Amino acid sequence: MLTHDAAVEWMTRWDRQQEGYLPDREERFTTLIDAVEALGRPDPLVLDLGCGPGSLAARLVERLPGAEVVCVDADPLLLGLGRAAYPYLRFVSADLRTGGWTGCLGLARPVDAAVSTTALHWISEQDLKAVYAELATVLRPGGLLLNGDHMDTEEVTPALSRLEHALHEREAERQFGADRPEDWRAWWDAVEADPAFADLNRERTTAGADHHGSESRLLSHHVEALREAGFAEVGTLWQRGNNRLLCAVR
């Protein structure tokens, strides 16, 4: 059984592991929440897409305690970890690649903002179009999609793309040097070895929730899919190397 205290310790380790790939992760979180706050509602309804264990949602509610955040993911283990660590958040098990996923969310009103960090690149380019099209049906006019992720431009600006990667790597070198945090695989290996996760690991294996590759890593994949879904404006709010916060206005 995963206790709250153990879950909080594992979340600290998760955040550290993620920072190894994103040395400016907290700055991106802050900018994203700034954008939600700029909508001007003290009680925004927010969807966290591919929420994982809830790192972003927890920070958002800490800043905006009146916000209602619906956290959506398909990974049983990460959802279980999030529920144990953040019992005040609402987690929903749903696969964004399956049509009708918005019907599982129990929404009482149109959504003010949909947010995501380092998650939607797992979705194929074709599935991404369907995800954004369905998302558009529940966002209010003027509502936002805020997606923080690594997004490359190599197909149109190869030299700039190489520089973006170089800037990102140099930022990591300055922050960590040779003392990089554990990587994604090492974190998961440790989780699989912890008896407290035994039931969640079995559920995860049954669900086939493991991630492989980066299916929609190009900025153009997201921009084109958002425009096809009817979003009026699409642009980058914040960027550090190839690490971006993409914003689309419904």
TrEMBL record:
GO terms (molecular function) for this protein are: methyltransferase activity
Against Gene3D superfamilies, the record matches this protein to: Vaccinia Virus protein VP39
Taking every annotated instance into account, which residue ranges of this chain make up the domain Methyltransferase? 46-143
Recorded superkingdom: Bacteria
Query: Per UniProt, which keywords does this protein have?
Result: Methyltransferase, Transferase
Look up the record and give one Gene Ontology term from the biological process aspect. Answer: methylation
Task: Supply the Pfam families for this chain.
Answer: Methyltransf_25 (PF13649)
- Answer yes or no on keyword Calcium: no
Listed PANTHER family: METHYLTRANSFERASE, METHYLTRANSFERASE TYPE 12 DOMAIN-CONTAINING PROTEIN
Q: What is this protein called?
A: Class I SAM-dependent methyltransferase
Recorded source organism is: Nonomuraea maheshkhaliensis
